[in-house]
Specification:
about 500 residues; seven-stranded parallel sheet; alpha/beta; Rossmann fold; seven-stranded mixed sheet; about 25% helix; 2 domains
């Protein structure tokens, strides 16, 4: 049995869904509910807010990164044991790939997870027009799944009239309102919202909003909607399944990867509905005389950069590495003087290194430690901000250059607009020397490099645009694209395999 659940969405970005989501999460927590949260799409920052409020890890659900069966599996797996799941949408409800379809939209996630939807509508400066707006969203798709409406930036005096007007004309419930509270607004910057750790009074803001919502939300109606569909499928859950179902050329195949016995990951290649691959997780260590082939999992240690500068993570990526046998040690390129001892691999994720370029550059001991490790063959994955950190030089927000690790022979400069934004598919290259097929990725950055790499071809899912990217060797995978490992688990397996080879000198 899945928990009760709702998906909070809006007609467009900027409608206040993140603020409303944060307030509702805090209010639900205050009401004693055991709540888990998810974010639709390739967003890093919103899950940070969710996690700060709930004290649990928030995860992403993305139907471009992973097929529907995998998304359903991840939702089931990570919501198990909770009373209520809250999913926050992305952009406008129906906005999907290329701005021309509903594919990979919040609407598609609602379908895949069989979740009732609450439409958050900005009511400032509107009255009767709200009926037309909500009617359009209800009727655009026959199966809209929209069961409720929350009116944002609406006064308590106006709310009863708006509620009666909408409910008398449309088959939908109005479940409450959110008044405009200026001191609860969340600040933004060039890549989105300011991160939670940078907002000193964030908890106070959210608590204030939660207290307001305690009286402005009709909780009985909201809970009724959330509990209206408690099942998702009749599939039986099995423990530690990595990917449950793959469509093959001849028939559907249910695949279970347990902690015992030979472990194999099966997955569908991006862009193909009738192909399959298998990866033996034990293959990389089967010939290692110092590491028993009978052990269920290899054991390697991966250092993961994590601080103010490097803070963009998909929790599912980290979890999958751990399920593949990796121990994760976190370190700070900003504050620590060197890499953790005895690491078998290193990861640098995205974030805001441009805001801390001077401090990163002045931490010469860490730069030396990173440079020495990678030159000695320690496998490294670096994406976006982490990729920038590996360059010879990187500009800060004021175009001032700073010396970085010097692994990538290039210069990173600040641009005036968002470059190569959105979903892509990567093809044609190898990951740590392994051919894992094609896989999905995402780019989102205001900086660019004169040495982006040539080892993969990035293709937009809509249109004909493409470009080369990624530096890929047997020990390095570095570039601007962000990866989601469940889109192709072979990526994670190849990285862990490279770490095993380094550790045991294979």
């Amino acid at each position: 049995m899945l928990p009760a659940r709702i998906l909070l969405t809006a007609p467009s970005s900027g409608s206040g869904k993140t603020l409303v989501t944060c307030g509702l999460l805090q209010a639900m927590k205050n009401r004693g509910k055991k709540v888990i949260s998810f974010k639709c799409g390739p967003d890093y920052i919103d899950p940070m807010f969710h996690s700060m409020i709930l004290g649990t890890k928030s995860r992403n659900l993305d139907t471009f990164f992973a097929d529907r069966d995998t998304v359903r599996y991840l939702f089931e797996k990570n919501s198990s044991g909770y009373e209520l799941a809250v999913l926050e949408g992305v952009m406008g409800y129906y906005d999907g790939l290329g701005g021309i379809s509903t594919r990979s939209s919040a609407y598609e996630v609602a379908q895949v997870t069989d979740t009732p939807v609450i439409l958050c509508v900005d009511g400032k400066g509107s009255s009767v027009s709200l009926v037309a707006l909500v009617k359009g969203f209800l009727e655009y798709k026959e199966d809209s799944r929209i069961r409720g409406v929350i009116l944002n930036r609406v006064s308590g005096m106006l709310y009863p009239r708006l509620k009666e007007m909408i409910e008398s004309q449309l088959p939908v419930r109005v479940v409450g309102y959110v008044p405009y509270v200026p001191d609860c607004v969340l600040e933004s910057r060039h890549l989105g919202l300011v991160t939670p750790d940078e907002i000193k009074d964030l908890k106070e803001r959210v608590e204030k909003l939660a207290k307001i919502l305690e009286t402005s939300i009709e909780w009985d109606v909201l809970e009724e909607i959330a509990g209206s569909n408690r099942t998702i499928s009749e599939q039986d859950m099995q423990e530690n399944v990595l990917v449950r179902k793959v469509t093959g050329q001849d028939k559907d195949s249910t695949v279970v990867c347990t902690e015992s016995g030979k472990q194999t990951i099966y997955y569908r290649e991006t862009g193909s509905s009738d192909s399959r691959r298998s990866i033996d997780l034990s293959a990389e260590c089967s010939d290692n005389s110092n590491h028993s082939a009978n052990e269920r999992k290899p054991s390697v240690t991966i250092g993961v950069a994590r601080d103010e500068a490097f803070c963009f993570f998909y929790e599912d990526n980290l979890q999958l590495l751990q399920e593949l046998g990796a121990k994760l040690l976190y370190f700070s390129p900003l504050h620590d003087k060197k890499l953790p001892e005895y690491v078998d691999g290193v990861m640098f994720h995205g974030g805001y290194p441009e805001l801390y370029a001077g401090a990163l550059s002045k931490n010469t001991e860490m730069l030396d430690s990173v440079r020495e490790a990678l030159q000695n063959g320690v496998p490294c994955m670096a994406e976006c901000g982490g990729f920038m950190y590996l360059h010879e030089q990187m500009e800060d927000m004021n175009h001032r250059p700073w010396t970085m690790a010097g692994i990538i022979p290039g210069y990173v400069k600040k641009t005036e607009r968002l470059g190569r934004f959105g979903y892509i598919t990567l093809e044609g290259g190898k990951v740590f020397g392994k051919d894992v097929g094609t896989f999905p990725a995402h780019e989102f950055h205001y900086f660019d490099s004169d040495c982006c790499g040539e080892d993969f071809l990035a293709k937009k899912p809509v249109g004909n645009r493409s470009w080369h990217c990624i530096h890929s060797t047997d020990t390095l995978f570095a570039g601007f694209p962000h990866l989601y490992f469940y889109g192709n688990p072979g990526i994670a397996q190849a990285f862990v395999g490279a770490c095993i080879k380094y550790k045991f000198k294979l």
